[in-house]
Specification:
162 residues; four-stranded antiparallel β-sheet; three-stranded antiparallel β-sheet; globular
């Protein structure tokens, strides 16, 4: 699987995820074909897929990276903050994106990684509030709230069934 975030210069505003399939389904093969597994856009609910991870059940976890300057504007108007999505790769819902988490204002989620027992998912939050015009009036106060300045952080999401 390969995430292609977007190519706005070529009219692909939303990106897509490709699946590489070895010829004759031979994992030792030296040639392959590819297919679009998931197309970004309003129909799928996500845009600009950027980082990928798999869980042991074979589900694909996708984090998105719509530029903060474009969030909620133009072609990206239908989308809220960047998010984390789980996409089954088999079964009746294969290729359907389900939003699992949403990033703070003007942030990018990145680096999804499960612990070996899959009880915890680590996820980095980059540049929350990056479109702030001045340090004294940030557009985000994440993660501390109140009067704090926005800061990047690593979060741990727990509670997964083992």
């Amino acid at each position: 699987y390969v995430a292609l975030t977007n190519s706005a210069g070529h009219g692909n505003f939303y990106g897509h995820v490709l699946r590489l399939v070895e010829d004759r389904d031979d994992p030792e093969g030296t040639s392959f074909r590819y297919e679009v597994f998931l197309a970004g856009g309003p129909q799928s609910g996500l845009a600009c897929p950027d980082n990928l991870a798999f869980d042991k059940a074979g589900n694909l976890w996708v984090v998105c990276d719509i530029s903060s300057a474009r969030l909620g504007r133009g072609a990206y108007k239908p989308f809220g903050n960047n998010g984390l999505f789980v996409v089954p790769t088999a079964g009746a819902s294969a290729g359907d994106a389900f939003q699992f988490a949403s990033g703070p204002v003007e942030s990018e989620l990145t680096g999804p990684c499960f612990t070996p027992d899959e009880s915890t998912l680590f996820l980095a939050v980059q540049h929350p509030g990056e479109e702030s015009l001045t340090a004294d009036r940030p557009t985000s106060r994440w993660p501390d709230g109140g009067d704090a300045v926005p800061r990047p952080a690593l979060v741990a999401i727990t509670g997964f069934r083992r």
